[in-house]
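Take a record.
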Amino acid sequence: MENSFFCQWFKGFEKGLDEVDSDSRNCLLRQCAKHCADTGVLQSYLKLYQTVNGERDAFYSRLSELGNVRGEIVVPNQEYFIYFPECACDIHTAFGVNTPNLCECSRQSIIYVGESVWGHGKIRVEQVETILSGDAECKFRVILDENR
């Protein structure tokens, strides 16, 4: 099949993302995020985690070493920002899906990768800004909680 078919198909996918309720969208994009992260992103983050011996502040301070991402410490050992200077989602870049609802996939990816690094249930992620919403970059707040 040629690329034009997929571009057309993904326009329908985009409309569907805009029409479904947030719980359904989250469920769908959670699976999208997991499979995307499993293609290599997760391994990069796990390697960085090992490099910094599990030290949270060092991990987020050194995120820029992975390329196309950077971190910022908001509250040491607890709250961070993750920034992406450009949208690298193939569904956006290759197939032209432009709805800000697609950015839930990035949030779900940060949760999935974060739980793989820090442990299940110990991370909350909030979307702050996204390129597809018209912002200059994507920004997510990450809150880690040992008591969760």
Remarks:
- The longest helix spans residues 22-51.
- The CA atoms of residues 83 and 139 lie 5 Å apart.
- The radius of gyration is 16 Å.
